[in-house]
Amino acid sequence: MTYGKSYFESLGVRLEYSCFRCEGGVTEWHAMLHVEPRGEMFAGQLERTYQAEQQLLALPEFAGAKYVLKRYFLSDSTNQQPLMRQEKDVAISVIQQQPLDGSKIAAWLYLQQGTEITVSSGMVVASHNGYRHLWKMGMVETEGDSAQQTSSILTRYEAALAQMGATLADNCLRTWFFVRDVDTQYMGMVRARREDFVAQGLTEKTHYIASTGIGGGPANPKALIQLGAYAITGLDASQQRYLYAPTHLNPTYEYGVTFERGTKMQYGDRSHIFISGTASIDNRGNVLYEGDIVQQTRRMWENVETLLAEGGAGFDDVMQLVVYLRDVADYSTVCEMFAQRFPYVPIVIALAPVCRPTWLIEMECVAVTTDGNTAYRAF
Fold first, then answer.
1. Exposed, middle or buried by CB within 10 Å (0-12, 13-18, 19+), for 144?
2. Distance CA 296, CA 99 (A)
3. CA 32 vs CA 105, 335, 346: distances in Å
4. Of the residues 103, 119, 207, 377, which has the maximum number of CB atoms within 10 A of its CB?
5. Is 175 within 8 Å of 227 (Cβ atoms)?
6. Distances (CA, A) of 256 to 64, 174, 188, 291, 297
7. Beta-sheet strand order (sheet of 13-20)
8. Across the chain, where does the E strand assignment appear?
9. What is the H or E stretch that residue 170 is in?
10. pTM > 0.85
């Protein structure tokens, strides 16, 4: 794993990136772009972001890289998303989760070298070595309440998976549920997801899916829920392992939600670890350190570190971090804490209330390790 930073001075854009190289195999990058506001309206900041995406590809460190996923964190998605480009060969996720560095836009970029990238059934497909990695972002519905919208979105996603010879239970590794006004709309999403999962054979006796359910505003004001998802075909069920950290976290079904704390996906040449949105909680499901952003941040780190360790990884293996804050006033404190603890890891800190009002902060991450298993094909 290597980390790096660069600054596109003429653009006023700061780049943070991580890179995982495997000799003779696929190379992966995660990158974060941070735009200096410069007193510009959104259109100017967006254009500088797009130019930075192009200049990034010209850097020697990114030789041969192709975009797979782009997630944009916006300050006002309803007014800003219509100004954005339509890109067909990249999975695009756009959500209102205001970057807290003073800008109107930030970007998380995922790139690969060595895969074939196509589009099929509305999904971006990265194919290599018998696997097809399926990325589908920005799924919304505009009719009904949050439960009805969730049910409709999941039904359509499951139909799209079926066209690719996949199912939610067997092939989906990671989901992101963005919920408008999470304090009032979250439980409708939770109820509909649970009902859908039961119909798909996903229960506490089988398994769930690593996920983040967080506040976020879709561009369409009528959309209460937005879903993004990542699935894989060509995998063996034994390649997936679920992470629980029972000393620190309780099973999610104990308080009525249906997601895995983390998932490890093992290949012949590496392992991917997806850590779900994780907050300051104990193994009985209690929120810890209510009202204390510093202590909640430390406990959150401890929980994530324990999940990573169960998967054979540590913070040195983390390729990216996304941090969600409820209160903008906590930004300076949290930013300093993360800068000291994770000085090299690409990170975005955004305004996005967590699903319980007393949680002040949540984080998710992706890690990659070299502990492959030769019983499986390489990534």
1. middle
2. 20
3. 11, 15, 6
4. 103
5. yes
6. 45, 19, 12, 24, 24
7. 2-8, 13-20, 27-35, 105-113, 66-74, 91-96
8. 2-8, 13-20, 27-35, 66-74, 91-96, 105-113, 116-120, 123-128, 131-140, 172-179, 210-215, 225-233, 240-243, 262-266, 271-278, 318-325, 347-351, 361-369
9. helix 168-171
10. yes
If you write DSSP's letter for every residue of 266-335 in order, what string do you get? E-SS-EEEEEEEE-SB-TTS-B-STT-HHHHHHHHHHHHHHHHHHTT--GGGEEEEEEEES-GGGHHHHH
**Where do we find the tokens 């964190």?**
73
Residue 153: its H or E element: helix 146-163
Q: Are 264 and 206 in contact (CB under 8 A)?
A: no
DSSP label of 217: B
Contact between 222 and 120 under an 8 Å Cβ cutoff? The reply is no
Residues 330, 292 contacting (CB under 8 angstroms) = no
Looking at residue 227, its amino acid is L
Q: How far apart are CA 305 and CA 326, in angstroms?
A: 22
Instruction: For tokens 């959150």, name the residue.
Output: 300
Angle made by CA atoms 42, 45, 47, in degrees to the nearest 5: 105
| Beta bridge mates, 322 | 348, 364
Alpha-carbon distance of 54 to 49, in angstroms, equals: 9
- Three-state SS letters, 117-149: EEEECCEEEEEECCEEEEEEEEEECCCCCHHHH
Instruction: Give the residue among 305, 139, 162 at the shortest CA–CA distance from 228.
Output: 139
Query: Which residues, 6+ apart, have CB-to-CB distance to 165 below 8 Å?
Result: 233
Report all structural domains of the chain as residue ranges with CATH numbers, in order of start: 1-114 (3.30.1330), 117-235 (3.30.1330.40), 238-379 (3.30.1330.40)
Tell whether the model's pLDDT for residue 23 goes beyond 90. Answer: no
- Alpha-carbon gap, residue 266 to 378, rounded angstroms: 9
For 145-202, what is each residue's pLDDT tens digit? 999 999 999 999 999 999 999 999 999 999 999 999 999 999 999 999 999 999 999 9
CA distance 241 to 263: 6
Give the Cα separation of 366 and 275 in Å (integer).
6
Does residue 317 carry a pLDDT above 90?
A: yes
